[in-house]
Amino acid sequence: MSIVTPARFAKGMIFEQYVAHVGTPENLQREGSQGPTRADQSGFLRERYQKLKLTDAQTAMIKWLAAQPGGPAKVLVISEEWSSDCRRDVPALARLVEAGGLELRIFPRDGKKMSRSNRPIPDESPNADLMAEFLNEKDGQTFQSIPVAVFYDKDLRELYRYIEFPACYHKDRIRGHQTTARPGETPEQTQARARKDFAAMLASHARRVELRRDRRDPEPALRAGYCRIIGEVGRVVAAPARRGSAHVERTRIAEDTAMFPSSTLPSGGIRA
């Protein structure tokens, strides 16, 4: 049985509270991935949120889904702002939730120290119990990967989840290419170049190359990601028997964004 009860869900932060929390002295004194204290990422999160927009079709689709019996109503997120994956996704999820009129609650993963164990340790974090429910099992190993994003209906029945990154963002493939030695490079040069390439990607549109369908669109992969998340949630709403089954997979997002018969779609349908 899930530990995500209405009372537990309500203890999370809404997006505005989370961004404000990120910039507090208390949070900045917590250990991060780069050392004993953290950089203030609250400005980055606000700026990213302001820049992100859904298309009219995507907005119509998430509103339509939310209005269906058993449709998405609540989204739980586990995040830490030192994670580039969280900085990428949490503002986007906030926009998606806002468009659909859903409830978003965000929970930090760590306590005062950044957790480096494969599984959460209860004494290290007040949210270790939540993280334990959404561990990333991959290639025979267990990870406390973040972000975790879990979509529920109004009664907190799970519809869909993804962990670390949506499947449309081919992070493993991109990082594999970046960390592969180039002809003539020493190991030290490869490591330095890979770090530089990754930092440049985070500050640019490079992560969107994999799904660039229209070069005039500045956010093609983001729009495609919205479509796939909305579409996968829609699959479960359309087939209630799948809820709680193996259909709910950690990083699976359908490749086909045309999830519904045309007669069931709002005007304009859904497209990337």
Could you characterize the architecture of this molecule?
The chain has 272 residues and is of the alpha+beta class. It has a single domain (6-168, 227-261), classed as 3-Layer(aba) Sandwich (Glutaredoxin), CATH 3.40.30.10. Helices cover 39% and strands 11% of the residues. The protein is built from ten helices and six strands. The strands form two sheets. Strands 2-1-5-6 form a four-stranded mixed sheet, with helices on one face. Strand 5 (148-152) and strand 6 (158-163) form a beta hairpin. The longest helix is centred in the C-terminal third of the chain and has 19 residues, at 220-238. The chain is globular, with a radius of gyration of 19 Å. The two termini are 36 Å apart. The relative contact order is 0.14.
Summarize the structure.
The chain is an alpha+beta fold and 272 residues long. The protein has a single domain (6-168, 227-261), classed as 3-Layer(aba) Sandwich (Glutaredoxin). It is built from ten helices and six strands; from the N terminus they run αααααβαβαββββααα.
Main-sheet strand order equals 2-1-5-6
Structural class label:
alpha+beta
**Share in helix:** 25-40%
CATH architecture: 3-Layer(aba) Sandwich
CATH class: Alpha Beta
The quaternary organization reads as single chain
Approximate strand percentage: 5-15%
Mean pLDDT metric = 79
Globally, the shape reads: globular
| Number of separate structural domains | 1
Count of beta strands = 6
- Name given to the CATH homologous superfamily: Glutaredoxin
Series of H and E elements: HHHHHEHEHEEEEHHH
Instruction: Provide the CATH topology.
Output: Glutaredoxin
